[in-house]
Amino acid sequence: MPNPYEVLGVTPAHTQDAIKTAYRAKARHTHPDAGGDVEAFQTVQWAYDILGDPDKRAHFDATGEEPKDKQGHRHDALKIVGTMMQEIIPQLMAGPCYEDAVAKMREAMAERIDGIAGDIGKMRADIPKLEAAAKRFISKGPNNALAAMVRNRITGIEANIPRAEHALALHKLAAEILEDYSFEADAPPATEVFENTQWATSTILGGHNNGMAQGGLGMRFVPMR
User: Fold this and answer.
1) pLDDT tens digits, one per residue of 98-124
2) What DSSP line would sit under 112-170, residue for residue?
3) How far is CA 172 from CA 34, 78, 128, 163, in A?
4) Terminal Cα distance for the chain, rounded
5) Phi, psi (deg, nearest 5) at residue 220
6) Domain that holds residue 9
7) Which of 95, 99, 110, 143 has its CB surrounded by the most CB atoms within 10 Å?
8) Domain annotation covers residue 150
9) pTM of this prediction?
10) Does residue 184 fall inside a structural domain?
């Protein structure tokens, strides 16, 4: 598979507008009506189909592979759900589960999504700080090795952002998949229900309304992790 950036004569650092401009120039040059080669024109179209779409471009930047269709992304998202299921299954086999397993998976997925989004935000915020820091290193010679080290760090961050954005998109899709499922938790043991009822009755008779408000008729949950 050719590199779409090389096909259009651009780099990952170029903006979407710059890529569009490069595409138009390449398309005019390779168009069959202008004496260009059909295969070369089709390759240019293929390259712009990837780089002209921010989501597809992010996928290519993160994986180096041609973007998959929606079914392919769903398969990858299901793998993420599968890793969570591997943690939950032993708990289900160990005994009664009084807690909503799917709800816990949704909570864990939401935490992951927030974490990834936070990492992306931090990386984006770090870039201008590093750019400013690079300018503060002054070299007496023609080569500024120290500033170059800082800029190398920026390059690394810029390469990691698309990977993180791809991971974020997959986790959001995984969260959408979980919305289609529910879990039937086990009913609490009869003895526990009786003890809770007995506690509530004694609390009411004793006039300790504050205790009831604070304690509630809580049921015992089996932690999944």
Assistant:
1) 899 999 999 999 999 999 999 999 999
2) HHHHHHHHHHHHHHHHHHHHHHHHT---SSS--HHHHHHHHHHHHHHHHHHHHHHHHHH
3) 45, 11, 28, 14
4) 43
5) -75, 135
6) 4-63
7) 99
8) yes
9) 0.58
10) no
